[in-house]
């Protein structure tokens, strides 16, 4: 019998829906009953993670714990979190709620180390993820060097992310090329879409960037979820 998966979502809602769709698409199934039992707590009221890390907002750990407890009490076997920046609070969350969690950031590191070896990896993410060293914490043990954009490009990425959260769905190729220009100059061709809003931007236009290997944190989490649940 398969396991029941809990999605601690709402950060943001579109990213949560994208993860759910990808889990469904990746599940080998010929009928409804072959699919994974998933309980989603889409909680958009969790305080902004980047705001807190930057010293400008409420600590989200309380809301994260409350949401995880609801999932646990509803009988899930493990919890996944489709928000990269929320993994800044991962250790405290795991300590507070006695249930298995899947660490999306570590799974991304394992995937890159397995498929590309020790290399330099460009990171597109929120300012909170950069400032919190969310990826660096796990990547060091896999021999991966994290390459980050300039401060000006970081601000552009954050603007892009919040535009997705507000409902925008079309972005000019020139704008995305500008965001990637520093990686291209440095010869970095493995790039993490390290915010779960970013696959919504890049997935439709990947073929226009053949010089980059995009690593979607959402895709990696979906693949691991199917593996564990089935």
TrEMBL record:
This is Aspartate racemase. PANTHER family: ASPARTATE-GLUTAMATE RACEMASE FAMILY, GLUTAMATE RACEMASE. The keyword DNA repair does not apply. Signal peptide: none annotated. Keywords: Isomerase. It comes from the Bacteria. Belongs to the aspartate/glutamate racemases family. NCBIfam families: asp_race.
